[in-house]
Amino acid sequence: PERGSIVLEAEGVTKQFGGLVANKDMSLSVRAGEVLALIGPNGAGKSTMFNLLSGVLEPTAGRVRFLGEDVVGKGARRIASLGLSRTFQHVRLLPTMSVLDNVAIGAHLRERRGLLGGLFGGALRLDRAQERRLLAEAARQLERVGLGEHLHDAAGSLPLGKQRILEIARALCADPCLMLLDEPAAGLRYFEKQELAATLKKLRAEGLAILLVEHDMDFVMGLADRVVVMEFGERIAEGLPEQIQRDPRVLEAYLGG
Ligand code: ADP
Ligand code: MG
Asked: Whose CA is nearest to atom 20 of ligand 1?
């Protein structure tokens, strides 16, 4: 997609769990080449929104369009194959395997989840050409995020900040145009957050659309182009980081006014 064009658009999205309204009439859009941050207190409905956008959950009402296509009811795998990748809040990798293999296998499993059993049975059932292609793509994405020097290190030996970046490389193998990141900076040291932010800025400059949920306000304010604030399942504010920081409703939501 062209830089600045809308890749993802949610309109009037509502999600009820029984009597609980986790998302109410939520709207947001993400453009190619921008970072949109979704923030709000615990229980505000951010993770539910992620699950609705990525097809893990179906909304009770409302529309979600990805690259112009209505994706409600399409399912997470189909939406992923259209170019939406996500990482999870907790690092998921095979610690004794190399960084390169983690990315290659992760990318492969992303396409064909049924092979997990085969993997632990010792057989990935890839032919030589497939394997070479996967490894080359994994190496390319690891170089892209600055992990080119660590291809043959054990993934578990990397510091947490680099493990997070490894997961981003794995998500990049599907060649997405939109990346959803769930609390990428959680638990990282100050310099690791800076390294992560620099990586995400590079990807943004290459035209990737990034939507992130994040609690670390300094991280959000230093990285996001726009911020959407949720409280009790609803959007209470949207704007530039500097506007959001001064918004009285946002301050109240955070300070428990
Ligand atoms: P956040 O990520 O902003 O902390 P969540 O989206 O996880 O918020 O949760 C929003 C609300 O929806 C919470 O009250 C939570 O308990 C509820 N909720 C989330 N998932 C489910 C579910 N699968 N079933 C029932 N309630 C849920
Ligand atoms: Mg959450």
From this structure: 48
**Domain residue limits at 160:** 95-173
Same domain for 193 and 70: yes
Whether this model's pTM surpasses 0.80 = yes
Question: For 149-193, how does the pLDDT look when each residue is reduced to its tens digit (9 = 90+)?
Answer: 999 999 999 999 999 999 999 999 988 999 999 999 999 999 999
Looking at ligand 1, which atom is closest to the CA of residue 17? Answer: 25
- pLDDT tens, residue by residue, 74-130: 999 999 999 999 887 676 789 999 999 999 987 776 655 444 444 544 455 667 888
Q: Are residues 73 and 195 in the same domain?
A: yes
Give the nearest ligand 1 atom to 51 CA: 6
CA 232 to ligand 1 center in whole angstroms: 10
Look up the CATH number of the domain holding residue 39.
3.40.50.300
Give the Å distances, CA to CA, from 247 to 26, 29, 43, 145, 235.
Answer: 19, 20, 20, 34, 13
Ligand 1-lining residues (CB < 6 angstroms): 17, 20, 22, 40, 42-48
- Give the ligand whose atoms come closest to the C-alpha of residue 88: 2
CB neighbours of 116 closer than 8 A, spacing ≥ 6? 109
Question: What's the number of domains the chain is made of?
Answer: 2
Give the span between the Cα atoms of 252 and 224, in whole angstroms. 21
